[in-house]
Write a structure and sequence with these properties.
This protein is mainly α. It is built from six helices and no strands.
Length: 117
């Protein structure tokens, strides 16, 4: 849909913001992996519900705190990310706009990473 707009600036903005978001979530992929082996091992092994709850709640709280911190610091984080990426001023402005909107869901995405793995 974006490719059909009147300027390639919009497509460039989405592409840059998608790269920035993907790199960010790949850096936080440990949230997804932190519950997989530990939860399965504790569930099958010790049969301890308290340890199971702890193994689930720790990454969940970490995801929640990380997401909220990113939400509070999204302006400087986005500015830093776009400074590192670089590019055309108009394209970066579109990327900034897309990231401001997209990063409103970061907390939910990080919690989802914990819940689905």
């Amino acid at each position: 849909m974006i490719g059909h707009l009147d300027s390639p600036i919009y497509l460039g903005g989405v592409a840059i913001s998608a790269i920035v978001s993907n790199v960010l979530f790949m850096l936080l992929l440990f949230l997804s992996m932190s519950t997989t082996g530990l939860v399965a091992a504790q569930e099958l092994g010790a049969q301890s519900s308290q340890k199971l709850e702890c193994a689930f709640m720790q990454p969940l709280l970490l995801a929640l705190l990380t997401g909220l911190t990113m939400l509070l610091l999204r302006h400087p984080l986005i500015n830093l990310a776009l400074l590192i990426v670089g590019g055309n001023v108009k394209v970066l402005e579109q990327a900034r706009l897309f990231l401001y909107i997209r990063w409103l869901s970061n907390t939910a995405v990080l919690i989802n990473m914990v819940l689905l793995d």
